[in-house]
Task: inverse folding
């Protein structure tokens, strides 16, 4: 079974208005949420075969912080321009081109595209994937091309704020939302 884990980058800083969108770093909340969501993914045994990240600084930092928590080699994170400021069609094409030998892939990117992608792949009707939100989509298709074209099932939707003021704020993680059966 194929599994796509969509992760929106953690909360970014707007402290320096002179920085380009691509160069915006994480703020303190983002630096707390990303490792906490990585721990959650590890605890749920949702470890990836591959990680794809947007080249934007905030997305790549999120990817690296999560990779550290799950013992995934940071040097193996693939940076893909197709994730940054692209429309949903580009993301669907990117998924369809994944190596069929990969079973679980993390894709770390941006809104509104990630929310649109979740809804396209699952018809879940999610209003918003928040910063550092994690969505797991499970597919019963053997190829990523079929997954991209035919869609799958929303299996998990996690938000840092759900965890007593945000995961990584020194609180215990709570039960996750499991959607479907």
Result:
């Amino acid at each position: 079974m194929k599994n796509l884990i969509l992760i929106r980058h953690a909360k970014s800083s707007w402290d320096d208005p002179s920085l380009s969108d691509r160069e915006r770093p994480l703020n303190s909340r983002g630096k707390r949420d990303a490792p906490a969501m990585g721990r959650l993914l590890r605890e749920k045994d949702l470890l990836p075969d591959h990680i794809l990240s947007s080249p934007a600084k905030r997305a790549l930092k999120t990817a690296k912080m999560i990779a550290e928590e799950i013992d995934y080699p940071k040097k193996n994170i693939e940076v893909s321009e197709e994730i940054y400021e692209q429309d949903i069609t580009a993301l669907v094409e990117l998924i369809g081109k994944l190596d069929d030998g990969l079973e679980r892939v993390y894709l770390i990117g941006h809104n509104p595209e990630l929310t649109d992608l979740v809804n396209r792949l699952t018809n879940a009707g999610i209003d918003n994937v928040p910063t550092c939100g994690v969505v797991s989509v499970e597919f019963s298709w053997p190829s990523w091309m079929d997954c991209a074209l035919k869609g799958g099932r929303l299996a998990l939707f996690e938000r840092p704020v759900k965890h007593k003021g945000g995961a990584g704020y020194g609180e215990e993680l709570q039960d996750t939302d499991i959607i479907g059966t």
Summary: The chain has one domain: 2-162. The domain at 2-162 is CATH 3.40.50.1240 (Rossmann fold). Residues 105 and 162 are 24 Å apart (CA to CA).
